[in-house]
Specification:
Blueprint (H helix, E strand, L loop, with lengths): L9 E7 L6 H4 L9 H17 L6 E12 L8 E11 L5 E10 L3 E13 H14 L1
Antiparallel strand pairs: 1-3, 2-5, 3-4, 4-5
């Protein structure tokens, strides 16, 4: 790795909730509010972005676990900010644990823990493609 991943590394991103991100549009519910699934995706994306530039060429991370609570509904048109912090790195440097949170313009809407693993992107995709060909 270019630089050792260090506990305390923070990340952040922001989106505006659009119609395409509503539970009623993505099939995760019948209400027209920001989908839990899309919130989790935003948290994952912020975690990925926070470490990607520190990885070696050809490496990326894949999600392996999510434990998140969605605490408050957010309407279409409101901004959501995702905040991540790397809280643990496994001894081999490949397992990453993040504290994740999401805030809309009023306050906290979601929080939890997200785990990722560093992989060689090409090998990972090749293995998955091979699995599909065996099916």
């Amino acid at each position: 790795m270019k630089t050792a991943l260090q506990v305390g590394l923070k990340g952040q991103s922001e989106i505006t909730v659009s119609k395409e991100l509503l539970a009623s549009e993505v099939g995760s519910g019948l209400v027209s509010v920001y989908s839990t699934a899309m919130m989790i995706g935003g948290m994952e994306g912020a975690a990925v972005a926070s470490v990607q530039d520190l990885l070696e060429e050809g490496q990326t991370t894949v999600g392996t676990r999510v434990n998140v609570s969605h605490l408050a509904a957010t309407p279409c048109g409101m901004k959501v900010r995702f905040v991540t912090e790397l809280t643990a790195v496994s001894p081999n440097g490949k397992g990453l644990t993040f504290s994740v949170a999401a805030y809309d313009e009023v306050g906290l809407i979601g929080e939890g823990v997200h785990e990722r693993v560093v992989v060689n992107k090409k090998k990972f995709e090749d293995k998955t493609r091979d699995k599909g060909q065996r099916a």
